[in-house]
Design goal:
The chain has helices spanning 16-26, 80-83, 89-93, 115-124, 179-182, 215-230, 236-251, 259-271, 276-289; strands spanning 31-35, 39-40, 58-60, 63-64, 97-100, 107-112, 129-132, 137-142, 148-152, 155-158, 164-165, 175-176. The chain starts with 15 loop residues before the first helix and ends with a helix. The chain is globular and about 55 Å long. A hairpin with a 2-residue loop joins strand 3 and strand 4 (63-64). The protein has 292 residues and is an alpha+beta fold. Strands 6, 7, 8, 9, 10 and 12 form a 6-stranded mixed beta sheet that branches. The protein has a 4-stranded antiparallel beta sheet with strand order 2-1-5-11. The chain has a two-stranded antiparallel sheet with strand order 3-4. It is 32% helix and 15% strand.
């Protein structure tokens, strides 16, 4: 087996943050390097100084069309060969910290920036694993959802398509993602009550009979939906909503639609410039329109 490039020779010492990253990756946490200011590092010429923005070049979670690992949440990986690759050699030597992709590990982080936010969480949310930060706390829940900033004063949500700084394992037992957190992703619901889609269980609708003869039917439908969003040249907001509506009307009630399917759709929309908030709103509006 070939020795990873960045593993130290006997007289060398492995960069401290790389050692932490390898340990976390082996535990199943997708990780990436951070530079000063808690910002991701561009890891290839196309992404130096985050030129690609993590969106125009994006293809799938965990990668883009750049020749080397991209920056931001898309670069997060558990693969030690990638972590120790030549593309990241200088990156780890100059890294100021380690971050991880919560959504990639099946987690949601409620980022509480100050004591007022912490007091609100203690009075409102179920107890769970907590990690102390410089100014506040991270509350970790088991389950994923769209990431959204400023859901209330001093509170951000980091899950899908986002990263959080690794500050240690924390204390307590990680609780399931509650509806109280999912609902925070929709700041201004219309007259009809809405909640953001919370990815803790398969996206079953009303438990109807499955009309699909083979799994290929669903796979083909999702692929066509992703392609429709990707090909949009104008009216992206409308295209995303109409695509979500079509997918849910066909696959949303029998229990075939999974969290991975929804994430593929959200990723395609995000690559076209849609924010996690817009994705969550479009998905919820489509469900509401279908009576789901």
């Amino acid at each position: 087996m070939t020795q990873p490039t960045l593993l130290p020779r006997p007289h060398e010492q492995m960069p401290r943050h790389l050692a932490v990253a390898i340990r976390l990756g082996m535990a199943g946490l997708p990780v990436l390097p951070l530079r000063a200011g808690k910002l991701p590092i561009g890891n290839c010429p196309q992404c130096v100084a985050t030129v690609c923005g993590g969106r125009p070049n994006m293809k799938t979670p965990g990668g883009c069309i750049c020749p080397s690992p991209c920056h931001g949440w898309a670069a997060a990986t558990t693969n030690p060969t990638v972590l120790t690759s030549p593309a990241w050699a200088s990156t780890w030597r100059g890294a100021a910290g380690v971050a991880y992709h919560p959504g990639g590990a099946g987690l949601t982080v409620v980022d509480l920036d100050d004591q007022d936010a912490i007091q609100w969480a203690r009075a409102t949310l179920p107890a769970t694993r907590t990690v102390a930060t410089t100014r506040g706390e991270h509350w970790l829940y088991r389950g994923t959802m769209p990431s959204t900033n400023a859901v209330r004063p001093g509170v951000d949500i980091k899950s899908l398509m986002s990263y959080a700084r690794w500050l240690g394992p924390g204390e307590g037992v990680t609780a399931p993602l509650p509806a109280a957190v999912c609902s925070l992703a929709v700041k201004e619901p219309p007259r009809a009550h809405r909640t953001a889609q919370c990815l803790t269980v398969p996206l079953t609708g009303r438990g109807g009979d499955c009309p699909h003869r083979t799994p290929t039917y669903l796979a083909r439908g999702i692929a066509m939906a992703v392609q429709r969003i990707t090909d949009a040249r104008a009216g992206v907001h409308a295209t995303v909503y109409q695509t979500f509506l079509a997918v849910l009307s066909t696959h949303g009630r029998c229990g075939c639609l999974t969290d991975d399917d929804m994430q593929r759709l959200f990723t395609a929309a995000h690559a076209k410039g849609e924010t996690p908030r817009h994705c969550a709103d479009a998905w919820t509006n489509a469900r509401t329109a279908l009576g789901m």
